[in-house]
Design a protein that fits this description.
Helix content is 45%, strand content 15%. The protein contains 22 helices and 18 strands. Helix 18 packs across helix 19. The radius of gyration is 26 Å and the shape is globular.
Length: 578
């Protein structure tokens, strides 16, 4: 299209063809060119070809269970031809697919038992509360809010309000109708029936809901003794087991026809949390497990509101059977306000985000790589709304299966090679070279680096890196066009998945990727996490630590969604203003 996007509408699946045809009609009306992929001999083939202006790919029509195989073959071939048309050579693609995948093989840190993890949270609660008197974060509007554009500032204010409500225990605006009978039914189902062989299936109906339920499933599956998983948006509920609990979550009311289609296909337990729906549908859910409407679910920070409300609902249900555990979790969630305020008032983090996005302002595409939580879907929404950068997300371990090939590995054309200092000064000026030396070499001089290599025990980070026989600054060459490259944003903030992040650093480092790494300040001083600094990274963003009575405290997985959503919004917004 005129913005440089390739739009493909895939319409070979029988069950969602009407949605695909509707998308084609909207694209045609908006004047956006697209490619249509449909099966041969479709009744609407002539109309599709007309709307797509002849840009059609017709595939043989197979049985529904075999059609995905044909589709996959098409996209394998298409991806290669597309890459070659954009200057990629065959020897640039990862040659040994099986070997490239094994780079992301870590199992992650061995998790604590639920009882031990709750004990860790209780100890952290105690340390943070003992230091709370020393906290010096002002009330009212904070630094990021003062420097934000209107829509961005509105999101910050709404999220700050959610955090303040969690901190104060004033939960009514978050989840106003937690009827005791419904909470009792939910507790009985979770702790008596589902704890054996059942499962909780979250059914998100829109993107904010998808982000929220992924965060809930990631954290709560370790505490509640039942399996949890997240359905895809638009996935049919017909194949879900009857003994499962279906949790419908929506930030906006779905279309009436879709709502009744969903509820009409449910044969087991279900509950609703989110936007208000018609009374007849609400009564049906009330007769099952429960109906929990949120009046302001579609406003700013919709995903954060749904995550907080779902977590509060599970805390209340836990409190029916395990009040001591629920008290620990409730006290921990009360720290959300502290986390949100610390991030919103962190000038250093804001400056680092601005520097990272300014240095990478010419990138048009980016990957967010992290754990299978809701942060990835949430960030794609932030960038869609605020930034010209097209951001896609991939869970840990997936990049080696194909996305890795989209990273430009021509290191000499991409980064500034370190040569004799006089040559660098002639090319870039003494002031710029001195800044690079200070930032990437610390106390070492260029001549010493070229003669002896990196010999400092504590090298700075980010630092220079060695590739293909030469040393490089992690700085893009002025003449480099990143149109054929992908910016990598790597999430190394979760303790449980830290080894996965190191695997991704190694995998992307083999392709000399341009990388921004996000981690937590306490991690930078942990000996077991120093391996983070062994990889070529252009920018490091550190979430602020919480104040504890015995030193700095890291942000737990329960509270990280709030902090990471703030960072994602800031990065997307500063990409525009920068």
């Amino acid at each position: 299209d005129p913005a440089g996007h390739l739009v493909i509408v895939h319409a070979t699946g029988r069950n969602r063809q009407e949605e695909a045809f509707s998308a084609m009609a909207r694209l045609k009306k908006a004047g956006i060119p697209f490619v249509a992929v449909v099966t041969k001999d479709h009744p609407a083939q002539a109309a599709i070809a007309r709307d797509a202006e002849g840009r059609c790919i017709f595939l043989p029509r197979l049985e529904a269970n075999l059609q995905p195989l044909m589709d996959t073959l098409l996209y394998y071939r298409f991806a290669r031809r597309f890459a070659e048309a954009h200057g990629r050579q065959a020897d640039e693609f990862p040659r040994n697919r099986a070997k490239s995948v094994t780079a992301g093989r870590s199992r992650g840190n061995i998790p604590f038992s639920p009882a031990r993890e709750l004990q860790v949270l209780a100890e952290q609660n105690r340390r943070i509360l003992s230091a709370s008197a020393a906290e010096n974060i002002p009330d009212g509007e904070l630094l990021w809010e003062k420097t934000a554009a209107s829509e961005e500032a509105l999101y910050y204010r709404r999220l700050r309000d959610i955090g303040d409500q969690l901190a104060s225990g004033a939960y009514n605006p978050l989840c106003p109708e937690m009827h005791p009978a419904a909470v009792n039914r939910l507790a009985a189902l979770i702790f008596d029936e589902l704890s054996q062989d059942g499962e909780i299936i979250f059914v998100p109906l829109d993107c904010p809901a998808d982000a929220a339920v992924r965060n809930v499933a990631c954290q709560w599956s370790r505490f509640l003794r039942c399996a949890m998983r997240t359905a895809l948006i638009g996935e049919s509920v017909l194949h879900f087991p009857e003994d499962a609990l279906l949790v419908f979550v929506a930030s906006r009311p779905p279309e009436t026809e879709l709502l009744w289609q969903l509820l009409g296909n449910v044969s087991g337990h279900c509950l609703w949390l989110g936007a208000e729906i018609p009374a007849a549908a609400a009564q049906m859910l009330t007769r099952s497990i429960g109906y929990f409407p949120l009046p302001d679910s579609a406003g700013p920070a919709a995903g954060d509101l749904l995550y907080a409300s779902l977590s509060l609902l599970l805390i209340r249900a836990t409190g029916i059977r395990r009040p001591d555990q629920a008290a620990i979790l409730e006290q921990h969630f009360a720290q959300a306000g502290n986390v949100i305020r610390r991030v919103l008032d962190d000038a250093d983090l804001s400056d680092e985000i601005a520097a990272a996005m300014t240095a990478n302002r010419d990138y048009r595409t980016a990957f967010y790589i992290g754990a299978s939580t809701g942060t990835g879907p949430a960030w794609t929404g932030f960038f869609d709304r605020h930034s010209p950068v097209d951001l896609a997300w991939h869970p840990f371990g997936e990049s080696a299966h194909g996305p890795l090939a989209t990273v430009d590995n021509r290191v000499a054309e991409k980064f500034v090679q370190i040569r004799d200092r006089s040559e660098l000064v002639n090319a870039f000026g003494d002031r710029q070279v001195a800044e690079w030396e200070r930032r990437f070499l610390g106390q070492m001089e260029i001549a010493e680096l070229l003669d002896n290599g990196f010999s400092l025990k504590q090298k700075p980070f980010p630092s220079v890196f060695y590739a293909e026989g030469n040393w490089y600054f992690p700085v893009l060459r002025k003449e480099y066009d990143p149109a054929g490259d992908n910016l990598i944003i790597l999430d190394a903030t979760r303790n449980h998945y830290f080894s996965h992040a190191l695997d991704e650093l190694a995998t992307c480092g083999c392709r000399y990727a341009r990388m921004i790494v996000i981690t937590q300040t306490p991690f930078c001083s942990e000996p077991g996490k120093r391996a983070l600094f062994n990889h070529p990274v252009s920018h490091l963003l550190c979430l602020p630590a919480l104040e504890g009575g015995e030193g700095a405290e890291y942000i737990s997985g329960f509270l990280l969604p709030f902090a990471m959503n703030l960072v994602g919004t800031r990065m997307a917004a500063l990409r525009v203003s920068g």
